[in-house]
Design a protein that fits this description.
The complex is a heterodimer of chains A (249) and B (276). Chain A has 249 residues and is an alpha/beta fold. Helices cover 40% and strands 24% of the residues of chain A. In chain A, strand 1 (2-11) and strand 2 (14-24) form a beta hairpin. The chains are: A alpha/beta (249), B mainly alpha (276). Chain A binds chain B through residues 13, 45, 48, 50, 74-78, 80, 82, 84-86, 88-91, 101-102, 104, 152, 156, and chain B through 10, 142, 145-147, 149-157.
Chain lengths: 249, 276
């Protein structure tokens, strides 16, 4: 379970998070919506300790993330797969080596046969052909990079998956493929997921619950239906921009 | 001052009233804090490097890779620089050694200046440009494209994967390159001296051996170890702390080359004072 309590974060004079309370139950997928630059990615990076809060508490599986010693933090991170906005693939390594780096168990990572099997399995899960393993990130399209990023994140069989804008910059067809993939992974692997996005349609499709982050705070959390029926002006305004009157009205 | 004016001044870089006046105390204070912050971070990085040495299974294979790139990759430019340095030293010795000074003194000047100064310092400065710029740009690009965050999010140590192999490669390879530089520099100096000073082989060897002390070689190698740290640790630090975007990478690369070059010159002065 992921829980953020009264989290504050500022960069210089820019207040990004101003008292965020947010929780994700085991096995569910929560979509975190909000306008660009509101701090969604910053919030997500608090969960695996890439950023520490100025104030407030971040718990994952009952562990207080900002206070974890280095070794324990590394162990916790092996349980959390992180899909980066632009893939963040290691460009000097092949796709195979990238995904292999995601196998976090040292015993398994040392077994070459296991690694080959696991990489193929992960490529298969994200609908990529085995030939992709030998390619380099520079040879891949944007959608393929995102899928390799997901394959790397799931290679270590994580308990949690954090997606940072998984469909941004993709055409609608590829965005739908990624959304379907997130749903498939949740169904097949049973992982707990947080999907950060400003794509309202995709978020409503993949999320069991939706949270809206505006002005440094979680404005509203609820099921997709609860958000659609919300009277909150800010929520309606945000949803109207993507769905139009057909959904909100 | 209203908040609105402050925001406008920040957004459009409009100087505030009195801001154009240079406040030396404030400037000095800022510079001191900035320097202290960098020193603290570098010290922490060194501490992390020492702590990460136990993960030898991770850094050892990568160290060989980096050593090959630093060592073999730099051979040509090091040979070229040392060859010219030896030749020019010899030509200038030919210009200055006239009259009553025995000609074998020139051999001592050529070999000693190459072993004590030109070999290590020129090799260090060349590597600050070649390897330092590369490391800062590589790690800086990895930082801005979130590859370093990705490595950390996989529970991997960035120090063991990225920093230790690079720093060790510098520490291992710079002394080796300095030995090559010394050999090439002295050889080219010898060949040039035969032409400019008309020195015999016997006189050259006699002069070189007359002034040579084994300690000079150790001093040269010790200096190159320090320079190896300077040309790798500083660029790694700059790369890991790169600002945003391509501009950030460019700034980090420039800062890395300038800082490591200055550090080499400063270390050269300090080590000469302490060890000679």
């Amino acid at each position: 379970m992921i829980r953020l309590i009264d989290v504050h974060k500022r960069f210089g004079d820019n207040v990004v998070l101003d008292g965020v309370d947010f929780d994700v139950q085991r096995g569910e997928t929560v979509s975190l919506l909000g306008p660009s630059g509101v701090g969604k990615s910053v919030l997500l990076k608090h969960v695996n300790g890439l950023i520490n809060p100025d104030w407030g508490e971040v718990f994952v599986d009952g562990e207080l993330v900002p206070l974890l010693p280095r070794k324990e933090l590394q162990e916790l991170r092996t349980k959390i797969g992180y899909v980066f906005q632009f893939g963040a693939l290691f460009d000097s390594m092949s796709v195979f080596e990238n995904i292999k780096l995601g196998i976090t168990d040292p015993a398994c990572a040392g077994d070459d046969h296991f690694c080959r099997m696991r990489v193929q399995e992960c490529l298969d899960l994200v609908n990529l052909s085995p030939v992709t393993a030998e390619k380099y990130p520079a040879d891949l399209s944007g959608g393929m990079k995102k899928r390799v990023g997901i394959a790397r994140a799931i290679a270590g069989r994580p308990t949690y998956l954090l997606y940072d804008e998984p469909t941004s910059g993709l055409d609608p067809v590829n965005a739908d493929i990624i959304d379907a993939l997130i749903q498939k992974l949740q169904g097949e692997l049973g992982v707990t997921s947080v999907v950060v996005s400003h794509d309202v349609r995709g978020s409503f499709r993949v999320g069991n619950r939706i949270a809206l982050l505006t002005e440094g705070k979680i404005r509203k959390v609820g099921t997709p239906d609860e958000l659609r029926d919300s009277d909150d002006q800010a929520v309606r305004q945000f949803l109207e921009r993507d769905f139009g009157s057909a959904v909100v009205g | 001052m209203t908040e609105e004016r402050w925001r406008l001044s920040q957004a459009y870089r409009i100087p505030l009233e009195g801001a154009e006046k240079l406040d030396l105390r404030r400037w000095a204070g800022r510079m001191f804090l900035l320097g202290a912050t960098h020193m603290g971070r570098v010290a922490y990085m060194i501490f992390e490097i020492i702590r990460g040495l136990k993960d030898w299974r991770i850094w050892l294979p990568r160290t060989w890779e980096q050593s090959y790139q630093v060592g073999v990759g730099s051979l040509f430019i090091v040979f070229l620089t040392a060859g010219f340095a030896g030749g020019v030293t010899s030509l200038q010795a030919g210009y200055q050694f006239t009259g009553t000074i025995p000609v074998y003194f020139a051999a001592g000047v050529i070999t000693q200046s190459l072993i004590l100064e030109l070999g290590p310092v020129l090799t260090g400065l060349i590597l600050a440009g070649r390897v330092g710029a590369r490391y800062a740009a590589e790690l800086g690009t990895m930082r801005v494209t979130e590859q370093i965050d990705a490595l950390e999010s996989l529970g991997r140590s960035t120090v063991s994967h990225l920093i230790i192999p690079r720093v060790l490669a510098g520490i291992l390879m710079l002394p080796v390159l300095v030995i090559f530089a010394d050999v090439v520099g002295i050889t080219s100096g010898w060949l040039a001296a035969r032409h400019t000073l008309e020195i015999t082989n016997y006189d050259f060897v006699y002069g070189a051996r007359y002034f040579f002390r084994p300690y000079d070689l150790w001093y040269s190698l010790l200096k190159s170890v320090f320079f190896g740290v300077a040309v790798t640790l500083v660029p790694c630090y700059m790369g890991m702390n790169t600002g945003k975007g391509a501009e950030g990478v460019g700034k980090a690369t420039t800062a890395a080359v300038v800082s490591s070059s200055v550090l080499i010159l400063a270390m050269d002065a300090i080590l000469s004072e302490l060890l000679l």
